[in-house]
Structures are given as structure tokens and as C-alpha cells.
């Protein structure tokens, strides 16, 4: 009889203690969480750095330099910079390797699997940021300048790209390029701010020389690191996603007697139209697929003006053209991919030149691009041809 109340008392105090401990734990965890949300800087941020290409995929090449090697070296330097600021850094690759499935370097869905494996590293590690490092190349040697891309649907990617690009222009004060929206697969991630940094043109003799120097590579890595730091300082609570819209018009429809072919200007910044005369005794008799085929074969032949840049390798053949409900499907020979010399920017110009040249034809409003009969291929490894393109949908 005497023991009981004591036991009850002990039990009560044990329960009370447990409740108090639980309250402390909950409050403690809460305040920890608050601290981490409000702390500025880079402490404990998880940054995934993705050196573009690698292994069987060299990326752009020029004068014996391979994009994959430049990307890897600058990524390793960037990793050290970010680690010194307190970040946890994960590289998608630290050596010369790729993520193709064994035996599937080319062909249907190969590139998608390759890029997905890189993206998965960021998702599996709950990354706070994803930075893909690439280098450009272009047939015109005078094109130069670092570039930063965000996905056209990502507000946080845009904010990050702007902070990084601001720093890059301090390394390269004559850089007139701006952080730009792009439709590149590797940065199309819903929850993680993601950017592509194009560290320069290996096709430009001056920039190539810079890119080969350790000092310059360090400056680029430091600039990206500072940009990342400023992003977290400016947006400690993250950036609200509001799907920034990229205003993009389609091409004007064909007038009575001329149509336009769209080529790149010599700094890869715009598409520039060049007029071709319509043969009035032939054109009206062509069906839609024949019209598309005629315009496309002229696009492949290239521009007349030496100031404009061809967007498709001239050896490329058209294997077939079909149309259905406003959609044109063009099957190109693999030259469009195998003879492609450039980087991400030139690739987007190639695809846009095809879309614009096609959708000026009344009755055609979207385009599908096949390579050697395959859907889901990629011309330069940055944009997947696994969907239907229209001029309003980016690229
Ligand atoms: Zn690349």
C-alpha cells in the first residue's frame, strides 16, 4: 500500500521528464532549422558541379583541345573554391568518364540516359545548387565570351545565373553577353537552381590561350564561386518560382514572292533572315511536305552572305519530310550530328534556324527533328530532340 503512491510518483515524474525532454528536442530542432534557414553564406550548402561531356563524348573540339578536359579542370578548381567557403561539393565526375549505358554511346535515348545520370547525382544528394561547366566552339574564330544559362522556366536559376555572370564579366570586362535563358536538358530541373557556365570559346585564339593558362582558369573558378556566394547572400530564403516567361515570337509568315532562311550572325547572338525568291510557277503546286523539303534543302546549302553562319553541316542529307496536322517531321542524315563542330550555343542556333525556317510556311506550326530515323537524338549533346519544337517554346 505504501509503495504504490511512490511508484505512481516515479512514473509520473518519468512521464513528465519524457515530455519535457521531447519539448526541448522539438524546440531545439526547430531553432536549429531556423538557424540554418537564416544563416547566410555557404556553410553546409550542397553544391553539385557537373563537368560537361567526358569519356566517349569529347564535346566541342578545336586545335587539339577537347571541351571535356577544359570543363573538368575548371570544375575541379571550382570545387576547391566552394569547399574553402564551407560548402559540401560533389562532382558528377572527377576523371575523364561519361555516363552512357555500356554499349549505348549513340542512338535512341542514349544521350538522355547520360544526362539523367548526372542530374540524379544532384537529386539523390539533395543538392542546393547544380552548376554544369561547358566550353564553346564555333566556326567563326572571332566569337568569344563567357556565358551563363538558366532554364527558361526557372526563376531561381535565373537569379543564380545573373549573380555568376556579373562576376564573370569582372574577369572579362569586354564581355557584352548577358545571363540567358536556354532550353538545355541538363538544367531543366524543377527543384534545384541550375545553371550552365560556358567558360569561353576554344575556337577563339585569344580566349583559347587564356583558357589554357592556370591563372585564368583560377580566375574563372573564383568568379563562379563568388557568384554562388552572392546568390546565397542575396536570397537566403531561396527564390520564389514564378515561371519567368521568355517572350518569343514566331517568324513572319511567307509573303507572296519571297521566303526567308534563318542563319546565325557571326557572334551567335541572333538568327538573321536571308531572302530567297519564290518561283511562282512551281511553289503553288507543291504540297506542304514538298515546300518544307525545298526550304530545308536551301537552309542546308547555307547562306549567300559571308557575314552569316551556316547552321547545318552542308553534307547533311534530308532522308524524309512528312507533315501531319501542322507538324512537320524532318529526318536528317547523321551528318547533322557527326559533322557538328560547335558547343551548346551553336546547337541551339541550329535547332532554332530549323524551327524558324519551317514555321514561316503557312500550315506548319511545329517541328520534329529525327537523326537517321531516330527520335530522341541530340545534335551536339546539350539539347535532346525528344519533343516537338515550336518557335514559342524556347530553344
Ligand atoms: Zn558542352
UniProtKB/TrEMBL annotation:
Q: What is this protein called?
A: N-acetylmuramoyl-L-alanine amidase
**Any single GO CC term annotated in Swiss-Prot or TrEMBL for this entry:** outer membrane-bounded periplasmic space
**Keyword Protease found:** no
Q: Its GO biological process terms? A: peptidoglycan catabolic process
Per the record, the domain of life is Bacteria
The MurNAc-LAA domain covers 119-229
**PANTHER family tied to this protein:** N-ACETYLMURAMOYL-L-ALANINE AMIDASE (PTHR30404), N-ACETYLMURAMOYL-L-ALANINE AMIDASE AMIC (PTHR30404:SF0)
Residue ranges annotated as transmembrane are 12-32
Amino acid at each position: 500500500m505504501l509503495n504504490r503512491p511512490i511508484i505512481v510518483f516515479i512514473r509520473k515524474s518519468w512521464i513528465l521528464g519524457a515530455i519535457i525532454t521531447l519539448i526541448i528536442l522539438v524546440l531545439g530542432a526547430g531553432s536549429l532549422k531556423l538557424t540554418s534557414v537564416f544563416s547566410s553564406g555557404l556553410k553546409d550548402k550542397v553544391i553539385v558541379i557537373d563537368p560537361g561531356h567526358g569519356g566517349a563524348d569529347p564535346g566541342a573540339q578545336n586545335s587539339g583541345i577537347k571541351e571535356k578536359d577544359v570543363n573538368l579542370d575548371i570544375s575541379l578548381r571550382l570545387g576547391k573554391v566552394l569547399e574553402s567557403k564551407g560548402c559540401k561539393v560533389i562532382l558528377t565526375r572527377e576523371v575523364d568518364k561519361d555516363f552512357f549505358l555500356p554499349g549505348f554511346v549513340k542512338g535512341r535515348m542514349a544521350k538522355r540516359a547520360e544526362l539523367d545520370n548526372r542530374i540524379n547525382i544532384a537529386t539523390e544528394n539533395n543538392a542546393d545548387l547544380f552548376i554544369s561547366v561547358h566550353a564553346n566552339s564555333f566556326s567563326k574564330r572571332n566569337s568569344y565570351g563567357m556565358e551563363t544559362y538558366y532554364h527558361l522556366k526557372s526563376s531561381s536559376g535565373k537569379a543564380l545565373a545573373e549573380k555568376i555572370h556579373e562576376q564573370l564579366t569582372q574577369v572579362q570586362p569586354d564581355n557584352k553577353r548577358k545571363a540567358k535563358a536556354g532550353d538545355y536538358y541538363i538544367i531543366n530541373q524543377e527543384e534545384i537552381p541550375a545553371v550552365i557556365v560556358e567558360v569561353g570559346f576554344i575556337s577563339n585564339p585569344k580566349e583559347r590561350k587564356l583558357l589554357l593558362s592556370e591563372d585564368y582558369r583560377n580566375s574563372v573558378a573564383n568568379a563562379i564561386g563568388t557568384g554562388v556566394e552572392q546568390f546565397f547572400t542575396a536570397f537566403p530564403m531561396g527564390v520564389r518560382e514564378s515561371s519567368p516567361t521568355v517572350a518569343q515570337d514566331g517568324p513572319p509568315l511567307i509573303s507572296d514572292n519571297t521566303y526567308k532562311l534563318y542563319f546565325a550572325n557571326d557572334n551567335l547572338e541572333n538568327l538573321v533572315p536571308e531572302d530567297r525568291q519564290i518561283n511562282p510557277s512551281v511553289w503553288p503546286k507543291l504540297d506542304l511536305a514538298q515546300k518544307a523539303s525545298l526550304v530545308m534543302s536551301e537552309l542546308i546549302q547555307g547562306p549567300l552572305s559571308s557575314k552569316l553562319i551556316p547552321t547545318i553541316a552542308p553534307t547533311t542529307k534530308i532522308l524524309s519530310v512528312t507533315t501531319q496536322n501542322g507538324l512537320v517531321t524532318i529526318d536528317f542524315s547523321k551528318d547533322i550530328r557527326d559533322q557538328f563542330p560547335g558547343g551548346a550555343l551553336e546547337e541551339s542556333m541550329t535547332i532554332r534556324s530549323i524551327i524558324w525556317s519551317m514555321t514561316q510556311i503557312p500550315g506548319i506550326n511545329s517541328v520534329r527533328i529525327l537523326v537517321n530515323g531516330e527520335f530522341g537524338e541530340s545534335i551536339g549533346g546539350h539539347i535532346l530532340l525528344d519533343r516537338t519544337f515550336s518557335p514559342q517554346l524556347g530553344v
